[in-house]
Amino acid sequence: MTEKRGQEPFPRRKRFLTPFLLVAALIAVSVPPALRFRRAAMVLRGLEATAPSGDSIPVHPFHAPDRPGRPLGGRVYEGGGAATIVLCPGAAPTGIDDPRLVALARALARAGARVVTPDLEDLRALRITGDTVDRIEAAVRSLPWPVTLMGISFAGSHCLRAAARPSARERVRAVLSLGGYAELEPLVRGWLTAPAPADGSWPEECYGKWVYLENHLERFAAPSDRPALREAIRSLLDGKGAPPPAGLTPEGRRLFDQVARREPLPLDEVEALIAPTRAELRALSPSGQLDGLAAPVFLLHATGDALIPESESRRLAGELAGRVPVRLLVTDLLNHVTVGGRPDRRQGRALAAFLASLFRSSGW
């Protein structure tokens, strides 16, 4: 249950540098020179990790109480008091140190916002757990100002759940979910049954399958098999091969075969892998758990996203319609959570308008 290892929150960066800058340029020249649109262009440029920061944004550590012995850490970019944004990274070992997330935080700060990036340990360890929602809620509670929550991929779904909790509800002005999900069970089912590409490469969905299985090795593998299976899965997540580990039990070898298979798993095997985790998957899903949400919701998703399909954001939009203001943008300019594709004036304007509306709801 993650993005590609080492590439979240903005994978395949180098491939899309030029389109990203073109999008920002198109926005700058194709919309009225309103402040919010200029801020949108700044934010888009900020997603370009290799651009020099060229700023003197003060940065200092963030600390928040959570539970005894587990203070929440992070970083604050002091760009001003126009708005306070809690920017939550997706599942990646680099966490808040990912240079692309740092660049985005700096761009938001240069545009006048105070940006808090909480260190979400479970997502750094590629674990999808309810504890992350608790940590985001703790960050919101600790700040003396109203906040806008922004979450990348899985963190977008966690932000929605945190914003619906009573202690955070009145403190959140708006929520942005970029490439988030509504319900985990159908998402996992899609990962396990994804067709193999004709060229023999790994389906993109295999990344989700690998992390799902690693998250639940305790349920599916004997203790003696877990270290070798975990090492094999981590090797695959790192983009390396994984030969069959020696010394596995018959059950462990069967699980490795499921891990290493490029083709869809048979339906009976899919059900056997999902059934033991069904209650947990439901508990980790925003769908049906957002009754307490009061803030406007902004859902941004890539057209044709293989890892987390756009139908997940469409489902969230449908569930929330009529309960809170919802704005959904599905765009060809994104590739999961990275700008890709060919920018044009129409799509640039749509993305700028989406961000400007988010800024307006943020009181910014």
Question: What would your notes on this structure say?
Answer:
- This protein folds into 2 domains: 14-183 and 287-361, Alpha/Beta hydrolase fold, catalytic domain (Rossmann fold, 3-Layer(aba) Sandwich); 185-281, no CATH class.
- The chain is globular, with a radius of gyration of 20 Å.
- It has 364 residues and is of the alpha/beta class.
- Helix 1 packs antiparallel against helix 2 (35-46).
- The chain has helices at 17-30, 35-46, 99-110, 121-124, 130-142, 154-163, 166-169, 184-192, 206-215, 217-220, 226-237, 250-260, 267-274, 278-283, 310-320, 345-361; strands at 59-67, 70-78, 83-88, 113-118, 147-152, 172-178, 297-302, 326-331, 334-335, 338-339.
- An 8-stranded mixed β-sheet has the order 1-2-4-3-5-6-7-8, with helices on both faces. A two-stranded antiparallel sheet has the order 9-10.
- It starts with 16 loop residues before the first helix and ends with a helix.
Distance between the termini: 34 Å
What is the total number of structural domains? Answer: 2
The shape is: globular
Strand arrangement, largest sheet?
Answer: 1-2-4-3-5-6-7-8
Number of helices: 16
SSE ordering: HHEEEHEHHEHHEHHHHHHHEHEEEH
Main sheet, how many strands, which sense, barrel?
8 strands, mixed
Q: What radius of gyration results from the CA coordinates? A: 20 Å
Percent of residues in helical segments?
40-55%
| CATH arch. level architecture of the largest domain | 3-Layer(aba) Sandwich
CATH homologous superfamily classification of the largest domain: Alpha/Beta hydrolase fold, catalytic domain
Report the CATH topology name of the largest domain: Rossmann fold
Query: Could you list the spans in which at least 5 consecutive residues all have pLDDT below 50?
Result: 2-33
Tell how many strands the DSSP assignment holds: 10
Q: Determine the mean pLDDT.
A: 86
User: What is the strand content?
Assistant: 15-25%
User: What is the class of the largest domain in the CATH system?
Assistant: Alpha Beta
Q: Which structural category do the helix and sheet elements fall into?
A: alpha/beta
